[in-house]
């Protein structure tokens, strides 16, 4: 548990620590990212750190939850306004890849979480899945998409996004820019997602 | 680099060290899995260890490559004998999930590799992708599957397997057995894969 800051200034200090920690965990890994490095990066004193977080592990968990909240918010905005589920998929995937481009630290942090904070890792995926399963279930029930198992489909599509983001954004080809998903890859991804979900054509 | 053992007995010793390391890395993580724990688990002396491996990092890389070889071998056998690409997908996915059930240590090791040995992690995925891309390219060219981007499709489907394996095998529901993929999940997965790949029905 970390203490909730009571003032705007407190909130800003807490956010600075989380931002610095996110960078440090991604760059050095949990074990090498010392509290000294994190507080120096945030421009706060060591004593200040302990006003907000009992220790490094709790801070790591907060970094995971903070990334998760922002990612889900971005994906919701990306799919808002879509008039059907396949358009919503397109907007959601676009927002997901754009978020990764702005936050490449997602990959190292989420991968290392398996050991550092497995419960936070699992919550990260489950929180994304919850809304996704509901959206796919509704679309499947209304015939907007094929009669798929909404939970299996949600996790499968999360896997598609995670693996393509790793391959084409974290490990770009030498002749590609490193931060964005290439347009042709995005379109090929959406072709697969559309084929997987669209109702049987008669 | 690790020295290649010249005798059968040497090969057996090396294999015992790799097997013990695989278990220790999965259970404790790279940093906590000491060479002492690994050699004790293998029943060999510390000095013997250094005849085969210069250190723990090189051993970790060998563990990744060993798992990778066995996984690819299992998937090849699983899809051998299929008369078309969609059947080969079914056999390959089945073999993949069965391998994970027998080797739950794949997840922690592959996830931690992001920090411990990123080059080995990348090779792990690329070695799986290489044969997969070729198979999908051939099937797409012959009209056996839809006209998909074979590389994007290969990585996307690798993501499907990895995420569903994590969700349903590493994190099973409380009322499910922990080691096997549930049949209904497997069938729902294959429905998505089939829809994603099958040629447009006319």
TrEMBL record, chains A, B:
GO terms, molecular function: DNA-binding transcription factor activity; transcription cis-regulatory region binding
Domain HTH tetR-type span(s) in chain numbering: 11-71
Keywords: DNA-binding, Transcription, Transcription regulation
Domain of life: Bacteria
DNA-binding region ranges: 34-53
Protein name (database record): Transcriptional regulator, TetR family
Organism name: Tessaracoccus oleiagri
């Amino acid at each position: 548990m970390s203490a909730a800051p009571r003032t705007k200034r407190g909130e800003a200090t807490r956010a600075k620590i989380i931002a610095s920690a996110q960078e440090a965990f991604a760059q050095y890994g949990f074990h090498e990212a010392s509290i000294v490095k994190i507080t120096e990066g945030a421009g706060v004193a060591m004593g200040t750190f302990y006003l907000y977080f009992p220790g490094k592990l709790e801070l790591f968990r907060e970094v995971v939850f903070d990334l998760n909240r922002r990612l889900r918010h971005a994906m919701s905005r990306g799919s808002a306004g879509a008039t059907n589920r396949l358009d919503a998929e397109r907007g959601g995937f676009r927002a997901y890849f754009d978020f990764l481009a702005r936050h490449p630290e997602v990959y190292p942090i989420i991968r290392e979480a398996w050991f550092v904070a497995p419960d936070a890792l699992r919550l990260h995926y489950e929180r994304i899945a919850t809304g996704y399963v509901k959206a796919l279930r509704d679309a499947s029930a209304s015939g907007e998409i094929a009669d798929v198992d909404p939970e299996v489909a949600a996790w499968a599509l999360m896997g598609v996004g995670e693996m393509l983001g790793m391959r084409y954004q974290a490990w770009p080809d030498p002749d590609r820019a490193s931060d964005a998903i290439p347009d042709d890859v995005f379109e090929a991804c959406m072709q697969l997602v559309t084929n997987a979900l669209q109702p049987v054509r008669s």
